[in-house]
Amino acid sequence: MSLNIEKSIYEEELKIISIEKASRLAIILFGVLVIVLGLPFFFMHREIFLAFFSNFEIIAFIKDCFSFILLFVIGIVLHELIHGLTWLPFIKGNFKNIRFGIMWKYFTPYCHCKVPLKVKHYIIGAMMPAIILDVIPTIIAFFTGSIMFFYLGVNFIVAASGDFLITYMLRSEDGNSYVLDHDSLPGCTVYRLK
Q1: Structural contact between residues 151 and 138, judged by C-beta atoms closer than 8 angstroms
Q2: What is the mean pLDDT of the chain?
Q3: Residues whose CB is less than 8 angstroms from the CB of residue 74 and which lie 6 or more positions away in sequence, other chains included
Q4: CA dihedral 73, 78, 79, 80 (to 10 degrees)
């Protein structure tokens, strides 16, 4: 879709996410997840928790913290890469139409698609990191009792709160309308046929 050529037949609406609103959602989401997922996880695997705390070793704890930070940073990079790889089949061209970066003011990484996507394709790309990096580790944690996988899963769910917000904002849009990422603000412009 060339917006210069076809813009006359589309009405546009800017949909911006407030970083403050996304941050509030992240805090609320973390609290809800601790109760909704954390309590059942604890009761299912309380022996592992008790063993961890009864055999607590500071060196092991520091190694676990370092491992978590490393895996979380890798996960953030993968999160943005998954957005781009999921959107790639739906756009013409190649990775030149996908831009990665960090909004330094908020220390927020992003994946920006420079060309319009259909709403349904945009939502698939927006939600794919949550499915791969959030849901899968959390399920693995419930089956294995891995505290590390559980904590990673919960933190990745919280990190995807902006993706959840934008998907929620697009929920009532026609799947065949178009979405264009805003080039400097968190959000997008929706293009609907007039």
Answers
A1: no
A2: 87
A3: none
A4: 100
Q: Does 2 score more than 60 pLDDT?
A: no
Q: How far apart are CA 88 and CA 86, in angstroms?
A: 6
Separation CA 47–CA 120 (nearest Å) = 44
163: enclosing H helix or E strand = helix 161-169
The greatest distance separating any two alpha carbons of the chain, rounded to the nearest whole angstrom, comes to 68
* Structure token digits, residue 63: 């190694």
Cα–Cα distance list, 184 to 99, 123, 124 (Å): 12, 20, 22
**C-beta of residue 25 within 8 angstroms of C-beta of residue 186:** no
Distances from the Cα of 80 to the Cα of 102, 141, 159, angstroms: 10, 23, 11
Cβ–Cβ < 8 Å for 145, 48 = yes
What ranges make up the beta strands (E) of the chain?
10-16, 98-103, 108-113, 117-118, 178-181, 187-193
Judge whether 68 and 141 are in contact, CB under 8 Å: no
Whole-model pTM: value is 0.86
Single-letter amino acid, residue 149: F
| Cα 139–chain centre separation | 17
